Amino acid sequence: MVVSAALQLLESGGGEALTMRRVADQIGVSASSLYGYVANKEELVQLVLDRIFEDLEVPSTGSWQETLREFGRALLAMYRRHPGVAALTLGRVAVTPAMLPLGERIISELRAAGMPDQVAAFVGDLGGLYIGAIAYEQDVTPLAGQEKEFVDQFTGWLKSLPADRFPNTVALADTAVAGSADDRFEWGMDVIIRGLATYLVVPPSPEGGWPTG
Amino acid sequence: MVVSAALQLLESGGGEALTMRRVADQIGVSASSLYGYVANKEELVQLVLDRIFEDLEVPSTGSWQETLREFGRALLAMYRRHPGVAALTLGRVAVTPAMLPLGERIISELRAAGMPDQVAAFVGDLGGLYIGAIAYEQDVTPLAGQEKEFVDQFTGWLKSLPADRFPNTVALADTAVAGSADDRFEWGMDVIIRGLATYLVVPPSPEGGWPTG
DNA sequence: GTCTACTACAGAACACTGTTCTCGTCAAGT
DNA sequence: ACTTGACGAGAACAGTGTTCTGTAGTAGAC
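^ Those are the sequences you sent over. The predicted structure of the assembly is below.
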């Protein structure tokens, strides 16, 4: 009830809209009465996080690489559906009951593929941080119409730098902003997955390309 | 003047201490008068970020791997010296003038090592996100004395899960929380650096270990 | 039937936040 | 001497999370 109202507020207004008074209004109750349902805002946030991760599941693919990639995409898509949530997961020990089956499946798949235990245990931390940070960044980034103008202005600034002091920065100005946000996200996941692959006890064959799925 | 006061507040009280009224008090001025020095809090934050990145420099090492690693450590150490700053960089297009020489040096080193332009241009984004997210997490995490107790409690919770439904989670409970925060950070950088190495136009020789410096 | 205990809620209040508006003071320029 | 402009203080506004106090209504006990 209260978490549904909170989710609705997040969807329509982002993280700043998640206010005790607004949640109370949403369910037709005074702000002070909210504290009958919930101890404080922190508890409300935890409930929201748990609810949200209930909708996620780890896809069944052939390879652990593709599983990680697909799950990462689903996670990012979920963050995008609920703006403001990424900011809530960062800076919080965001391990809710709903996450347990997800972590279990991923660890299982990684171990089955021959990944050392230490790596399998840490990969959730690394991936969660990366995707959470990306989602947070895109949350707060200037949106829609302004974005292109902003990017152009930023590129222009980089290009206008003195080429003798910043030759590489100037040279790569266009490259740095090339590609969509999705492209950058996919590339980052690629780096991480390629890095993880080097920990396999059965090393991949170098010729024929790296196992990126 | 104002940024020095702001930095002092961050050092002693963390991110929540950075308040316009407190900054004003620190320099012996009323809150409203602060707006004579600074347009708004956002501008003050940008000034703080720029000041902070002035103290950083990219070390000169033999390999690009060691350079990335050393710079990453310096960045994390800087975040730790100034609690609350990591939260400011995340969710903000945190490219200040003081960062330009740093980015230039890193891009230069990567290109010289044979890294494709696209990778060299993106690596700052990926690394900055990862380190910023880690620093933010450690910022907000319960500190000092409580930490060990909290970790033990968390491990206990994981181990108490039904082993038939979460066999891998239970099995790796100890492994997941093993190692210090620094260990986890170093490992994450290792994954990223190993992943980046796979993009080199001159591929590293697989036998003899991966080039992790 | 009456009284009591308890629950759910509302309203006001407190200590904050960023920001703006208005006012006063004081030094420099003409 | 008078004006102008800068500088800063104080109050105020619209918010925030949270707590305290009071007030209905309702269930159960005698």
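The two ends of chain A are 42 Å apart (CA to CA). The longest helix of chain A spans residues 117-140.

Shout if you want it in another format.
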